Amino acid sequence: MPTRPRQRAFTLVELIVVIVILGVLFLLTVPRLTSTEARRAENEVRSVALLLSAIAQRDALGSQRLSLAYDAADRRLSASVFRSTGDAINPDGRWSSDPLLPPVVFEAARLETALFDGARADSRGWTIELFPGVGRPTIQLVFAAGEAQRPSRWLVDLLPYSTMAAVATPSGGLSRPTAVDLDAQGMRLSPW
Fold this sequence. Notes:
The protein is an alpha+beta fold. It has one helix at about 10-60; strands spanning about 65-70, 75-85, 95, 105, 110-115, 120, 125-130, 140-145, 150-160, 165-170.
């Protein structure tokens, strides 16, 4: 009786080992992929804080009129500067994008609420002008990302006379730099 040549095949043990390895790889990569969206949103929120800080510094030190504008259709927060074309008596001019402050376009985060001195701004879009020598309002922007049942939230807060925006993270409070009282710490004569 003729014998058939033996066909080479995978054993059951080899198949189980491959399935276990694929399962472990899947379990390791899924959390990284799902948390990428939250990290992108947090980076966008931190970019907003940097934009607000730069505007606050230019408002405190400069003499140009600035504006901060949000357009919900474009999901874009941008800074503009007023370019004067007239003289002091006839201060005509136009608003143009500030080339030093790049806009923030939201792909992962969404702006939920904007408050100026506690008053809610229009969710479809808003513009706030900052005049040199005039106090600016408290600016509070609340962002969210993720699914509607359990979104991550961030608060970007810029106080009227501050030049640094603070970010409240989902896990903690505001990350605002605080002053250190050297007298209270017993370091009255220490140089700073």
